[in-house]
């Protein structure tokens, strides 16, 4: 008698809740990690490994929350007139201030941005010491797990690929300073097209190593890399130093409410 085996039903991923990797937005975010190969992120050698090896503390917010965050960030960017902010430092501080507020509050939780401004341009300023002109900190929780993150960022007005050699060298020096505190510093590339500016996040490590890099629009960066806690340093001492560094900073509070 031939014993017939019942076909196996596809199992959902324990972390993401999706059956197929392609269905999961976190999978696509993990592919960016694979492409960027930041030193504090996981470099995966196959798509299967990317999916199965995603960190267990990754948070998955519902699509309605993700869409609301992206719309909120895009509206903040559109609300800034490039003509009023000719210098990257002024534009960056104005953008961070514009982002302050509540991006989402409802049945799925809370997403709130808080801005802290500092005007320290002295020779021994936080920027001269750390190489960053602003920081992003985040505390993300789901009622069970709470993750704190810190990200150092240096903003540059214009395309990184078109920087003059001297300016690129200065940027690399700034990235090296940031890497003394965090493993994966970021560069905020602010490009202008058709009279509007588009902030995009880039791996500072890849710029420093002169490797190809991919830019991520700021709204996608917050939803793919920050709320998921895929990016940022979790060392409490580093997070504390960044929070007390006197850098202009944007603090993200993300609370996921489980049904």
How would you characterize the overall build of this protein?
- The chain has 259 residues and is of the alpha+beta class.
- The chain has one domain (57-256).
- Helix content is 34%, strand content 23%.
- It is built from nine helices and eight strands.
- An eight-stranded mixed beta sheet has the order 1-2-8-3-4-5-6-7, sandwiched between helices.
- The termini are far apart.
- Residues 3-7, 10-22 and 39-54 have low confidence and may be disordered.
Descriptive tags:
disordered N terminus; about 260 residues; about 25% strand; 8-stranded mixed sheet
Q: Briefly note the structural class of the backbone.
A: alpha+beta
Strand order of the largest sheet: 1-2-8-3-4-5-6-7
Q: Please report the number of helical segments.
A: 9
Rg, Cα atoms, Å? 20 Å
Number of domains: 1
Extract low-pLDDT stretches.
3-7, 10-22, 39-54
Largest sheet: 8 strands, mixed
Task: Provide a quick synopsis of the model.
The protein has one domain (57-256).
Topology (elements, then pairings):
Elements: H1 25-36, H2 47-52, H3 63-78, H4 88-99, E1 101-106, E2 109-116, H5 126-130, E3 134-141, E4 146-157, H6 165-179, E5 186-193, E6 196-203, H7 204-208, E7 216-217, H8 218-226, H9 236-243, E8 249-256
Parallel strand pairs: 3-8, 4-5
Antiparallel strand pairs: 1-2, 2-8, 3-4, 5-6, 6-7
Helix pairs in contact: 3-8
């Amino acid at each position: 008698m031939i014993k017939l085996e019942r076909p196996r039903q596809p199992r959902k991923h324990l972390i993401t809740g999706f059956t197929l990797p392609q269905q999961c937005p976190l999978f696509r975010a993990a592919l960016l990690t694979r492409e960027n190969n930041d030193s504090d992120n996981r470099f995966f050698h196959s798509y299967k490994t990317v999916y199965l090896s995603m960190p267990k503390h990754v948070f998955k917010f519902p699509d309605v929350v993700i869409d609301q965050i992206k719309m909120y960030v895009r509206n903040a960017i559109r609300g800034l007139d490039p003509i009023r902010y000719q210098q990257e430092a002024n534009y960056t501080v104005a953008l961070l201030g514009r982002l302050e507020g509540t991006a989402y509050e409802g049945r799925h939780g809370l997403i709130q941005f808080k801005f802290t401004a500092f005007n320290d341009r002295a020779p021994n300023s936080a920027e001269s010491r750390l190489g960053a002109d602003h920081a992003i900190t985040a505390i993300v929780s789901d009622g069970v797990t709470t993750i704190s993150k810190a990200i150092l960022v240096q903003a540059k007005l214009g395309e990184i690929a078109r920087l003059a050699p001297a300016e690129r060298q200065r940027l690399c020096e700034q990235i090296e300073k940031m890497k003394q505190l965090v493993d994966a510093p970021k560069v905020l590339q602010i490009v202008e097209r058709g009279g509007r500016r588009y902030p995009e996040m880039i791996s500072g490590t890849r710029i420093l190593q002169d490797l190809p890099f991919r830019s991520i629009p700021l709204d996608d960066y917050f939803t793919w890399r920050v709320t998921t806690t895929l990016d940022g340093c979790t060392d409490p001492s580093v997070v504390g130093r960044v929070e007390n560094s006197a850098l202009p900073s944007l603090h993200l509070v993300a609370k996921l409410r489980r049904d």
